[in-house]
Amino acid sequence: MNNDLIQIVTYNPKYKKSFKDLNTEWISHYFEIEPSDLKALDHPKEYIIDKGGEIFTAISDDEVMGVCALLKSDNKDFDYELVKMAVSPKAQGKGIGQLLARSAIKWAIERGASKIYLESSTKLKTAIKLYEKLGFKEIKGVPSPYKRADIQMLLDINS
């Protein structure tokens, strides 16, 4: 799979099922689906898009290879939260997560964002390495609705 053939597109309802399926697959593999997951996965337009966020989908040959979303934040300490990143098992290790994250960060910057937050699990070592490579730094003190989240990170775009 050549990353030049990967197209990153913003929200399209036809990819709603893939958004849910890819996220359900990875979350179920490592953890358990929680009520907070279902809000975004069952109602992505209402929960993410209609509130000023965006969903990004990586496509190759009409097949969804990965997804992620930016949730508009009500928190004064950051503008968006990077959420629900998932890459198809057959496409992992090919840089698709990085393409998705960079597209999301660029989109947020174009809308005036200065800080992007995310939550993850230290169990997901590859994901943590990706976030660090993108410039995210660990922070403390932000409560999470997820049992699995044991690390919070912030990307300060202006630093």
UniProtKB/TrEMBL annotation:
<dbReference type="InterPro" id="IPR000182">
    <property type="entry name" value="GNAT_dom"/>
</dbReference>
<dbReference type="InterPro" id="IPR016181">
    <property type="entry name" value="Acyl_CoA_acyltransferase"/>
</dbReference>
<feature type="domain" description="N-acetyltransferase">
    <location>
        <begin position="17"/>
        <end position="158"/>
    </location>
</feature>
<dbReference type="Pfam" id="PF00583">
    <property type="entry name" value="Acetyltransf_1"/>
</dbReference>
<keyword id="KW-0808">Transferase</keyword>
<protein>
    <submittedName>
        <fullName>GNAT family N-acetyltransferase</fullName>
    </submittedName>
</protein>
<dbReference type="InterPro" id="IPR050769">
    <property type="entry name" value="NAT_camello-type"/>
</dbReference>
